[in-house]
Amino acid sequence: MGVRSALVARESSWRSLSGGGKKLIKMAEAKEVKLHGFWASPYCFVVHHALKLKGVAFESVEEDLENKSESLLKLNPIHNKVPVLVVDGKPLAESLVIFEFIEEMWKEPPLLPEDPYKKAKVRFWADFFYKKLLPTVYVMGECEDEAQQKAAKEFKEHMSTLESGIQKDLPSDGPFINGDKPGLLDLIVGSWSGVFRVDAELVGMAELVEKEKVPLLHSCIASFSDHEVTKDLVVPHEKLLNHVRALREKALASAPK
Ligand SMILES: N[C@@H](CCC(=O)N[C@@H](CS)C(=O)NCC(=O)O)C(=O)O
User: Fold this and answer.
1) What burial letters (b/e) apply to 31-55, b meaning 16+ CB within 10 Å?
2) CA-closest candidate to residue 200, choices 156, 232, 246
3) Which site in 3, 66, 79, 150 is 20 to 30 Å from 41, CA atoms measured?
4) Domain named GST N-terminal: which ranges (predicted)?
5) Which residues pair with 87 in a beta bridge?
6) Integer distance in angstroms from the first to the last C-alpha of the chain?
């Protein structure tokens, strides 16, 4: 094969991998990818896993959230939070916004369904998770007594709503919510599963995600920690527990008496 035909063959195999000439250019343009994150942040894990699953090479930049760097404040001047993804010097904040960018930029493997209605349903349940479920996770971590127990009860109710909603809108044979491979909802639920275990301990329950009550979400979490790509980011339970306890002490000390 001559040089020219070798180049053409390589280009066309890239094209078929990435689905077209335009995408080939985009991929070739994306030279430097940096993820500013924090070791205990599930929001950052979602982005990390999406990049890993798509085989994108990136550098992780660990941020100190107690003493935020000038660069983080510059990269995310609106929220001052991680994750921030920087692609060729251009920053993007907010985990779900970053996820959509990654999904658009690096097509393979897709982490959202192709069907527009199903895609919208995945986004609906992701939004439900962020808006309805996560507030109860924070209350369990930061409050005591009645407020904490109430949040644990609400958490379980929302998990049941999520389970039945997904079963109805996005039926699959598992073991992931997305079927045999993880998708966005798996990344979200799997990324938060360590915090769920920590919160269970804080509220004095053996488990917050019960196999009998939410079998699909339970199966997603188990498969996530076994999967060849996503298992790389399992934070040791004691380490996360100590971190959440320290945040809890701070929140309790500053709560109005
Ligand atoms: N809505 C944001 C939330 C990100 C977030 O809360 N990040 C936390 C780490 S888990 C953070 O940077 N906290 C620093 C602060 O609140 O000052 C997202 O989805 O990315």
Assistant:
1) eebbbbbbebbbbbbbbbbbbbbbe
2) 156
3) 150
4) 31-110
5) 33, 90
6) 78
Nearest ligand 1 atom to the CA of 80 is 17
CATH architecture of structural domain 116-254? Up-down Bundle (1.20)
Q: Where are the domains of the chain?
A: 31-105, 116-254
Number of the ligand 1 atom closest to the C-alpha atom of 98? 20
Residue 248 CA to residue 98 CA, distance in Å, equals 28
Closest CA to 153 of 174, 173, 139: 139
Burial of residue 95 (CB within 10 Å: 0-12, 13-18, 19+) is buried
CB contact burial 170-193 (16+ within 10 A = b; e otherwise):
beeeebbbbeeebbbbbbbbbbbb
C-beta 38 within 6 A of ligand 1: yes
pLDDT at 8 (0 to 100): 36
- Give the SS3 label for residue 211: coil
Least confident range from 14-18, 183-187, 210-214, 242-246: namely 14-18
Distances (CA, A) of 187 to 35, 46, 62, 211, 254: 16, 5, 20, 19, 33
CB 84 within 8 A of CB 93: yes
Average pLDDT, the chain: 90
| C-beta of residue 56 within 8 angstroms of C-beta of residue 107 | no
Angle at Cα 118 formed by Cα 42 and Cα 156, nearest 5°?
45
What is the CATH architecture of 31-105? 3-Layer(aba) Sandwich (3.40)
State the distance from the centre of ligand 1 to the C-alpha of 82, rounded, in angstroms. 5
CA dist list (Å): 130 to 20, 112, 176: 34, 17, 19
The pLDDT of residue 12 is 37
